[in-house]
Amino acid sequence: MANSSLDPKNAALGDSDNPISPDTLRVRYRAFSERWRYFMACLTGLAIALAINQIFNLGFFVDYVMLDSRYMYLITGVMLSMVFIVFPGSQHSKAHVPWYDIVIMVVIAGIFSYYAYYAERIVLEAWEYSAPPVGVWLAMVTWAIVLEGGRRAGGWPVFFIVALFSFYPTFADALPDVVAALSITLPEAAIFHVLGEESLFGIPMRVFAQLVFGFLIFGVSLQFTGGGPFFINLAFALLGHLRGGPAKVSIFSSGLMGSMSGGPISNVLTTGPLSIPAMRRVGFSKEYAAGVEACASTGGVFMPPIMGATAFVMASFLNISYAAVAVAAIVPSLLYFFGLYMQIDAYAARHELAGLPKNELPKLGEVFKEGWYFIVVFISLIWMLVFMQREAVAPFYATGLLLVINQFTSHRLNIKKFMQLVAMMGQLLAELAGILAAIGLIIGGLAVTGIAGTIANDLVYLAGDNVLVLLFMGALTSFILGIGMTVTAAYIFLAIVLVPALTNAGLDPLASHMFVMYWGMLSFITPPVALAAFAAASVANVSPMKAGFAAMRLGAIIYFVPFFFVLNPALLLQGSVLENLQAFSTAIVGVALVSGALQGYLIGLGDLGYGIAAIFGRVCIGVAGLTLALPAGGLFGLSQLLLLAIALVFLALGIGCRYFFVAKKQALA
Known about the structure:
There is one protein chain. It contains 31 helices and two strands. The chain has helices spanning 8-11, 22-26, 34-55, 68-86, 99-117, 119-124, 133-154, 156-171, 186-195, 203-224, 227-239, 245-261, 264-281, 286-299, 310-318, 322-328, 330-350, 364-387, 394-406, 415-449, 451-462, 467-484, 487-497, 499-504, 509-522, 531-540, 544-554, 561-567, 577-599, 612-629, 640-668; strands spanning 601-602, 606-607. It is 71% helix and 1% strand. It has a two-stranded antiparallel sheet. The radius of gyration is 26 Å and the shape is globular. By secondary structure, the protein is an all-alpha fold.
């Protein structure tokens, strides 16, 4: 694939009828028959109908208002059933649904129907503390099913972590004092997990069922109706002709796609087959092309307006609107992608990598003519989110508008394509529901024992009240958890255990939540287990570790960005207009300087040279950039004027070294 040529005018358009290739889907999903696909579509339709009825308060059109707990039982039962259709239990059942999965689905249907029928009694009689024997047994069976669903949707790391923390309340008194707590019996733990509102049906699943659900449907609809190829074509039309153009296209298109999907790996596999061959064509190495795609796809998780599921969970934890979280993420995401852009530009300039010929690129006017309605739908969604504050219903309206307009285009759906769309929605819904249901058990295990507060205090004690040490500990913990879990799952765990320690140390709550989310995300581009880079390596046909190290080197500036905004909340637009503007302007210049130093090329100066003096100069320019991005006052107690003076001194030293290199080169010539 890496050696194939790419004509963006044609290849970038993709196949809007099948925007995600079957090969991509077979990586993790079961390749089931047409009959099971229709069954999946029916279950997905049922889940969507339940969600729309509850979120829009339709009362099933007969004024029957359903209890929130009954709604949660019904939609969770449907979603868990879909997990056992979508994800095979082993390699031997990847092409069919075996009898034992059918039995599990029947058991799920029976158990959750029982819960839904007795929803009022469960709440009024507080079954989470004292349930009848049948409730206890059903809760224990449900616990086991949720663990298995988490394993299938999230892998063995999710299973082991969830199992450890969900069973923790049953042996907490036997552990060392630092992590000890009062224990409860296995039946007591089971009914608390399954029949209460703080575990299985806690924040993760509530946010999923009441907020995230609609955005996942919108994201899949956007891709299936040709939104992915449209954004890729738009990126080629705007940036394809610039030096290193295909890599810049990857940043633009993957960032937008990642914002919608929230999944770095699926994003790589969607946009990578187009962007990576184009990068190879203009001279980028295989590993560098894979690294660019991995970094760009991972950054989409942090990019407004959608940001996957994590932003909604964060808003729920902080008890603020989703729009507030999205606005706060604007500057950090801009710094992330600006850092990537500047490094790619510097790399392309230093290695004299041109863009693609303009006559091979899509025409901007033609691209807009073909997909103008995607922009209209996107603007409508943002308007409803930010200005109307209708987070729950906005994606449903946007999806309806998209599908109606799409029927008047060449990409209109027939019955077969519509059923494929609904089945694809089900695959994504099942995956996230399986993971979030399992992660809820972690919250339950920590909530029933009260250990989360103890861990936070212990972390502050270990850090010796040193905020920087605590931040480095938090970054390392977030990174390690991000290796084995999805960004959303890692964030939820850290929001309970680590964020209280950061806020107790005096850091801004929103900045602390953003910090752990950011670092959990960075594990996808950092060896030894850089999953997004490994996925890109499979597309580029290169060694996974080479792609991982290329992504890590390319994303070097990205590792500093979370420290910038956690120490300076103005970068999250939490200060006055003047403070926000000053912080953003100095951070932008700082990121540009660090990016140039890392790649050895700075706009306005050119090649920074080779040799000892050049390396020293690059270090000085990098230090100048970091100094500019540091917050004034606060933790370091340094004035902005002093930081600016220090930055100018180091920048002057770096420029001097560069001119020394040029003079030496000219003398030798």
